[in-house]
Design brief:
single chain, alpha/beta, Spore Coat Polysaccharide Biosynthesis Protein SpsA, Chain A, 7-stranded mixed β-sheet, two-stranded antiparallel ribbon, 7 helices, 11 strands, binds cytidine-5'-triphosphate, binds the ligand C[C@](O)(CO)[C@H](O)COP(=O)(O)O
């Protein structure tokens, strides 16, 4: 099973509240997005990385890719205003370079703790089912709230928290983005486009450690996950940033 991966790094990281884009923050002197790319660089099933970045950060990211020997990057693509647009720009670049219909994994650059096991699981599921996502069962009680009043408690037995990578045939997800644009779909993940078009999406159990670095407290968790996975170096000094 071979695939190309689209790594998304063109956000602003506003919820993180730091001076720089959160995917450029460092864990042990290595930027988050490089940690993410290294996972795919080391996966022999990954045949190409397409990295989507902010226009003003492309040169910095190109230098980082060289410095950290990320050799599988085929293109660094300029992102869009929203994640959905960034994905579409990345898919367009991938489609222009592909002479076949490869499996494509779409992954948040802000999720550096993705593991090989989950990548393989979601890719194999998509190869079989056409589309697959990683998700983990929610652990909290979820309520619908309006004006600080509980409206409804949602039965959590069927609720899952969705992660990335999300995996598809390139033509499937590219066409879904085109159709979604035509119909004015606004989505926060790519599988939603297929769902709204009535197409099936398989769910593969993910790993709770595959967190998306979003708010400052995620950085504390990231430091511990890094130690857990890379040995006990406490070099991740978030106060430096
Ligand atoms: N226009 C955008 C927005 C987001 N992303 C990427 O999509 C992933 C998930 O998005 P999110 O966590 O929301 O990142 P930001 O948009 O940067 O965060 P915020 O909403 O706090 O600004 C991130 O790796 C982010 O870099 C992107 O490539 N292009
Ligand atoms: C794609 C995603 O990570 C799945 O949970 C999530 O939807 C991204 O949302 P964000 O607001 O762009 O971080």
């Amino acid at each position: 099973m071979a695939y190309n991966v689209l790594v998304l790094a063109a956000g602003k990281g506003q919820r993180m509240g730091k001076e720089k884009n959160k995917v450029l923050l460092e864990i042990k002197q290595t930027p988050v997005v490089i940690h993410t790319c290294q996972v795919f660089e080391n996966d022999e099933a990954c045949k190409g990385i397409y990295l989507v970045a902010n226009k003003r950060e492309i040169d910095e990211i190109q230098d980082l890719l060289t410095e950290f020997h990320i050799t599988k990057v085929k293109q660094v693509v300029e992102g869009g205003r929203e994640r959905q647009e960034s994905v579409f720009f990345g898919l367009q670049a991938m489609k222009e370079e592909s002479n076949h219909d490869p499996l494509v994994l779409i992954h948040d650059g802000a999720r550096p703790f993705i593991k090989q096991k989950e990548i393989t699981k979601v890719a194999l599921s998509a190869e079989k089912m056409g589309a697959a996502i990683l998700a983990v069962k929610v652990k909290d009680t979820i309520k619908k709230v309006s004006h600080h009043q509980v409206q409804e408690t949602i039965d959590r037995s069927s609720l899952w928290a969705v992660q990335t990578p999300q995996a598809f045939r390139l033509s499937t997800i590219y066409n879904a983005h085109v159709e979604g644009e035509k119909r004015g779909f606004v989505v926060t993940d790519d599988a939603s486009l297929l769902e709204q078009l009535g197409k099936p999406v398989a769910v593969v159990e993910g790993d709770y450690q595959n967190i998306k670095l979003t708010t400052p407290e995620d950085l504390i968790l990231a430091e511990h996950y890094f130690e857990l996975n890379h040995g006990g170096n406490r070099d991740a000094d978030w106060t430096r940033i």
